[in-house]
Amino acid sequence: MIGLFSRPASARLRLVYLAVALLGFLAASSAPTPLYQLYQHAWQFSPATLTLVFAVYALSLLAALLTVGSLSDYLGRRPVIFVALLLESVAMLLFIQAESVPWLLAARLLQGFATGMATSVLGAALLDTDREQGPLVNSLAPLLGMACGALGTSVLVEFAPWPLRLVYGVLLALFVVLALLVWRLPESVSRQPGALRALRPSLLVPPQARGAVWRMLPVNIAVWALGGFFLSLGPSLVREVSGLGSSLVGGALVATLTLSGALAIYRLRLRPAQQVLALGTGLLAGGVGLILLALHNASLVLFFAATLVAGSGFGAGFLGALRSTLPLAETHERAGLMATFYVLSYLAFCVPALAAGLMVRQFGLVATSEVYALVLVGLCAVAGVLNLPAMRGARSI
Questions:
Q1: What are the TM regions of this chain, as residue ranges (predicted)?
Q2: How far is 152 from 359, CA to CA, in rounded Å?
Q3: Gap between the Cα atoms of 234 and 225, Å rounded
Q4: What CATH architecture does domain 8-184+208-396 belong to?
Q5: H helices of 160-272, where?
Q6: 210-232 vs 234-242: helix crossing angle, rounded to 10
């Protein structure tokens, strides 16, 4: 494989490398999800602690986006990708050695920072490589990565030895190989002064993209809040609804959400951005409504069917949000806008899930899930109102 990069890399090979790297980081982010049940059984911690472990990852990721999110616009893409891969490799080693909740928190803390650094630089590098395919890969890779991480971990837990360590060893090998290969890629951004100034926490939204960011924000919050709930409390909820204790059920639930989202992205990739955003809003609201029905009927089959619909809305909403904002940035604004997009997204990813984890102790998991679902439907209604003028304008063109 190294030989492929010994001569100037084609755009296709750069896309493959960047997509695999982004997929790997997101697979690692969801890999612990099917293991939470095993960690809870081994170390006896509460759902609130579980969501704290999840939130530490997301908050650390946000810290990275706010500080080093636009660093590659000044230093170049390759060195930032390399450092992110190095930090992620150390995080995998911490997971392998984990023996208690503090170890798990430390691993997730470091992993979050590495992932935050990686998502902005890899997203920007994908746009540098191909402005047409870059947004599509940026949309597909995270969802496919989360599916691979959750489902792959579930399979290893059920059928392979070392359930709390093997998946991290596999991911560690991947990140080491990627770190060796990154220096074979051509650099797409020239160095420029201002790197230290860029480390000050800030959010960059170019003036030409601000209107699009406000319009996509409610549905983007709903999309990521749904994803955060599924990756933290989703397996526990489906276990309570179904009574099944297998890790495969929780992994299959996350995979259903993310794979249906990835399929929706692929099918809708050529549609206008505003149309995709509107469709995602409707599907997300409908899917969450069906999840409420599944909870009331304690139906596992309906729960998975509802997740398919909600997952389609997840993917369409994510694609619509990306395509309506990121192409509006210039070359040296892309990493900064990508960082801002992910800051907004991961705030929605962790804060509502953390609040839900705190509510579970007082109200129970099912009641908390019902309130959570109603809030998501409300966000979709707001998104529909905000995007109505833009949709009318698109139809008149």
A1: 46-68, 80-98, 104-127, 139-160, 166-183, 217-238, 244-264, 276-295, 301-323, 335-359, 371-390
A2: 30
A3: 12
A4: Up-down Bundle (1.20)
A5: 166-181, 195-198, 210-232, 234-242, 247-267
A6: 50
Q: Which tokens sit at 251?
A: 């992994």
Give residue-wise pLDDT tens across range 288-341: 999 999 988 888 899 999 999 999 999 999 888 888 887 777 767 776 787 788
Q: Please list, in sequence order, all residues whose beta carbon lies within 8 angstroms of the beta carbon of residue 331, skipping any fewer than 6 positions away.
A: 128, 189
CA distances to 177, 249, 312, 391 from 273, rounded to whole Å, are 36, 34, 15, 10
Dist CA 199 CA 67 (whole Å): 5
Question: Hey, what are 1's tokens?
Answer: 């494989």
Among the listed residues 127, 130, 139, 122, the one whose alpha carbon sits nearest the alpha carbon of residue 321: 139
- What is residue 396's three-state secondary structure? helix
Q: How many CB atoms lie within 10 A of CB 293?
A: 13
Q: Measured between alpha carbons, how far is residue 246 from residues 236, 301, 305, 308 in Å?
A: 11, 16, 19, 20
Report the C-alpha gap between 148 and 65 in whole angstroms.
24
